Amino acid sequence: MIMQRFLRNIRTLTFIFMLGLAGLVISGTAFADWCVDNGDGTITDNNSGLMWQTATAGPMDWDQAMNYASGLSLGGHSDWRMPTKFELVGLFHSPCKDMMDVRDDNYWSSTSHSNDSNLAWHVYFGRGYVGSFNKSHPYYVRAVRSAQ
Q1: CA angle 101-98-40, nearest 5°?
Q2: What is the mean pLDDT of residues 23-30?
């Protein structure tokens, strides 16, 4: 009776272990398909359909950041732009950011504040905070483009 219970517990634990191991293999494969290092200074996030610049640029004010992103030629593409507030928040929560040079600091978005044209939204990559600040303030920049 005790031996049968022991063997049943061993079988159950073995099954749980194998199931967990299979999950790790599947999630590792999913991560590899989710984030692709293109080897040219860009990362493609297949979940969002966006291609990101891997390097951090700046700091620079908002107007300089907008000009920098739109003038960027990287990875054989010249249609780069500043990300929206929501795209930056998405990057903060994406595993792809772990493949990039990311500072625990503020990054500009292209999204101006609706109540004050002197303000724009930024995302603090230390904790994912979203806020708005005067466009003359220097923050970091990361360009983005559609991966399609």
Answers
A1: 55
A2: 47
Fold annotation for 38-146: Mannose-Binding Protein A; Chain A (3.10.100)
Strand partners, 45: 35, 50
> pLDDT band at residue 2, thresholds of 50, 70 and 90?
confident
Sequence ranges of the domains in the chain: 1-34, 38-146
Quick one: average pLDDT of 9-28? 50
C-alpha 122/C-alpha 131 separation (Å) is 6
Total Cβ atoms within 10 A of residue 84: 14
Predicted pLDDT at 113: 93
